[in-house]
Design goal:
Elements lengths: L1 H15 L4 H13 L1 H24 L2 H8 L2 H21 L17 H16 L2 H14 L7 H27 L7 H27 L1 H14 L6
Length: 229
């Protein structure tokens, strides 16, 4: 059991620093909206991870492989991300926030619920997350004899490590709050919107051109070990 925990911790580190829309929005939320807002956003992300894990565990690997490689799902998820990025970009186009309105005000209960939902949906539309959890079950499940208790400890450790590191990221990002002028907040939000649009475009291209991207990935994998550019 202790060995399972040791195996899970590095994966938690990897997940915490995996670049994606959630990573950037979490830092933006922490810096602009504060510690509590970012924590509630992260709770939504973790809830979606739990849902993905449940799907991966209780479904057959054959079914999941067909789902995670379905081009339509990549296009659908990518369109949602891209649309979200475009909407937030346009929304911030002519709005430069006042420092007094940048979440220094007391957040309402509905705000926290909205942050949880936002974190959940932003992570859930990324079908690659399902592939990540499925891969962990396929790789590590047999080494634990698919023992439910060992798997529970393993994945709780992965998610727990991920959450603890996220708290550290939130605290570090929050320290930037006093340096955030209205124009910097405006630029950060627009930059995050562009990043989300880029991730959406990547998902769409993965759905529309799966074979071409697979060939590129295979070429990169053969070149990198030789140290060639």
């Amino acid at each position: 059991m202790f060995q399972d925990i040791l195996s899970a911790i590095p994966l938690g580190f990897f997940l915490a620093f995996l670049l994606g829309p959630v990573f950037f929005v979490l830092l933006e939320t922490a810096a602009i909206k504060g510690f509590r807002a970012a924590v509630f956003f992260d709770v939504g992300v973790i809830l979606s991870d739990v849902v993905f894990l449940s799907i991966a565990y209780f479904s057959t690997s054959k079914l999941l492989n067909s789902i995670k490689d379905d081009p339509a799902l990549f296009v659908f998820g990518g369109c949602i991300l891209a649309t979200y990025g475009i909407i937030t970009f346009v929304k911030e186009k002519k709005i430069v926030p006042n420092p007094e309105d940048t979440e220094l005000r007391k957040l309402k209960k509905s705000d926290f619920i909205g942050l949880i939902v936002k974190g959940f949906l932003l992570n859930f539309v990324n079908i690659g997350v399902l592939g990540f959890w499925l891969g962990l079950i396929i790789v590590f499940g047999p080494t634990m004899n698919m023992d439910p208790e060992r798997l529970l400890v393993f994945f709780m450790t992965v998610i727990g490590t991920y959450f603890v590191l996220d708290l550290l990221k939130i605290l570090l990002a929050k320290k930037l709050n006093h340096k955030l002028t209205p124009i910097r907040i405006y630029r950060i939000k627009r930059g995050i919107s562009i990043a989300i649009m880029v991730f959406g475009a990547i998902l769409i291209s993965r759905g529309l051109f799966p074979s071409e991207l697979e060939q590129v990935e295979n070429q990169v994998e053969t070149i990198l070990p030789n140290g060639k550019k």
